[in-house]
Design brief:
Blueprint (H helix, E strand, L loop, with lengths): L3 H7 L6 H16 L2 E4 L7 E6 L26 H7 L4 E7 L32 H9 L3 E7 L5 H6 L3 E4 L19 E6 L2 H11 L21 E5 H4 L4 H14 L4 E5 L8 H15 L19 H8 L5 H14 L5 H24 L1 E5 L8 H4 L4 H6 L5 H6 L3 E9 L2 E8 L5 H15 L11
Parallel strand pairs: 2-3, 2-4, 7-8, 7-9
Antiparallel strand pairs: 1-3, 4-6, 5-6, 5-10, 9-11, 10-11
Helix pairs in contact: 6-16, 9-11, 9-12
The protein binds glutamine.
The site of glutamine has 13 residues, from loops.
């Protein structure tokens, strides 16, 4: 698949191109709920959308939460500014997401986005709408965000490319934080080339975000691919079967090596401890006083006032506030938080060592998309277990890309390729090579917008 961005500049567009397109998007959105807000005045260039936790001036940015309903940012996030700078991209809208990024299926929000292949199925999360919008519209990319897999997971479930760059390579100014030591802004696109074009547009130093310090991006090609056998054994049997076929194919050009990791498969617990601890501090500002839905009754008692305001959080946000606050408390912080940090650095070291020699490849998710009704029945721990493969690279801040490679019963499958810090171009190149030899075709039945 070549670049849709380049192709777009070459095609002849009818006079009413944008009118027709926007009408089509609105119609489909009635079923798929990919967008929270559609910008009807998009009239030039290639379309891009942003996840609802990235501020775009003048457009409601609620991070999927009732708490931020009605919040219209008076400024642009740096990534939005950079996308708009040359007028070759037009902003088409704000995409649906799990509340504050808390989720893997896109169902932790008022109205979930629906899978582009079948609207009864989950879109994946937390950047659910970004993935569905990317599957929906041909000449479009989405700027999304990942803390523990939120770009890779929905990309896999909707058959698009989801690229999460090295931690600290893209400015987070104007991002509504989930967990600061983990959050990364990245791209969803229909091709690796488009992901790269957008990455190059948005990355690089920013005076407004001093944590954005990674400037040099390389393309150091590796000839070895590591597969974590013990982790793979936890994937659904059909997913495993398809993945083995992918490995077979890749083994023509790469040396595929089966290894085991004692630490990587334990990444879920430390991730959730760290993510919840950080999330609970980030959410502390939504008191209804300065941030968050305003309670009108100032004559209430202190506790009552704040309790009322924090009713605006959904169930998963409340769970994370409670657990995160507990984890950080004086009496248990060493037992949980400090231990999680120690395991995190073990995982990072182990991955770093492997990634010097090759890539790590896995299925993106251990399953294909479940039905929305079935996903709702999963316990929180069952939900968290779905992040088995996406969490290790996120915990380590390693760049990773999910690319579509097959189908099971008509639903798409993604594979996740990870490389070392700053070697982002290598995995984009890998997928480009794969795209041109494999010729993956979209099968969703949304029609072609
Ligand atoms: N599923 C993970 C979580 O709920 C990751 C979400 C994300 O990357 N924002 O924390």
């Amino acid at each position: 698949m070549a670049s849709y961005i380049r192709e777009f500049n070459e095609i002849e567009k009818p006079k009413d191109y944008y009118e027709g397109l926007i009408e089509g998007i609105e119609k489909l959105n009635g079923t798929y709920d990919a967008f929270n807000v559609i910008n009807k005045s998009a009239r030039t260039g290639f379309l891009f959308s942003t996840k609802a936790n990235i501020c775009v001036k003048g457009f409601e940015t609620d991070a999927g939460s009732k708490m931020l309903k009605g919040y219209v940012p008076p400024f642009n996030a740096t990534v939005a500014d950079r996308m708009l700078a040359k007028k070759d991209f037009s902003f088409i809208g704000v995409t649906n997401m799990d509340e504050f990024g808390f989720g893997t299926f896109g169902i932790n929000t008022e109205i979930p986005a629906k899978n582009a292949f079948d609207s009864e199925y989950v879109a994946g999360g937390s950047s659910s709408g970004s993935a569905v919008a990317t599957a929906m519209i041909k000449y479009h990319v989405s700027v999304a965000e990942s803390t523990g897999g939120s770009i890779a997971a929905p990309a896999a479930l909707n058959g698009v490319v989801g690229f999460t760059p090295t931690y600290g390579s893209v400015s987070r100014y104007g991002l509504i934080d989930y967990a600061n030591s983990l959050d990364k802004i990245g791209v969803m696109a229909r091709s690796s080339e488009d992901a790269r074009i957008v990455f190059d547009r948005i990355r690089g130093r920013d005076d407004y975000d001093t944590t954005c310090s990674v400037e040099k991006i390389s393309s150091e090609k590796k000839s070895r691919i590591f597969v974590m056998d013990s982790m793979l054994s936890k994937a659904d049997q059909k997913v495993r079967g398809a993945f083995e076929r992918l490995l077979d194919r890749l083994s023509r050009d790469y040396s595929v090596e089966h290894v085991d990791s004692a630490t990587m498969e334990k990444a879920i617990a430390p991730y959730y401890i760290i993510a919840m601890a950080e999330a609970s501090t980030n959410l502390a500002k939504y008191t209804g006083y300065k941030y968050g839905a305003m309670s009108q009754d100032f004559y209430k008692q202190y506790n009552e006032f704040f309790t009322d305001a924090r009713e605006g959080f959904g169930i998963e946000a409340k769970r994370r506030i409670l657990l995160g606050t507990f984890i950080r408390s004086e009496s248990v912080k060493d037992k949980y938080y400090a231990k999680a940090l120690a395991i995190r650095s073990m995982i990072m070291h182990e991955m770093d060592r492997l990634l010097k020699d090759g890539y790590i490849l896995s299925p993106t998710l251990p399953i294909t998309a479940p039905k929305i009704a079935d996903a709702r029945k999963l316990s929180p721990v069952e939900n968290y277990a779905m992040d088995l493969f996406t969490i290790p690279p996120n915990l380590g801040g390693f760049p990773h890309i999910s690319f579509p490679y097959d189908y099971i019963d008509g639903m798409p499958l993604g594979a996740q390729l990870v490389t070392g810090h700053g070697n982002d171009y290598a995995i984009l190149d890998f997928v480009k090579e794969w795209e041109s030899s494999f010729n993956y075709t979209y099968k969703h039945n949304l029609g072609e917008l």
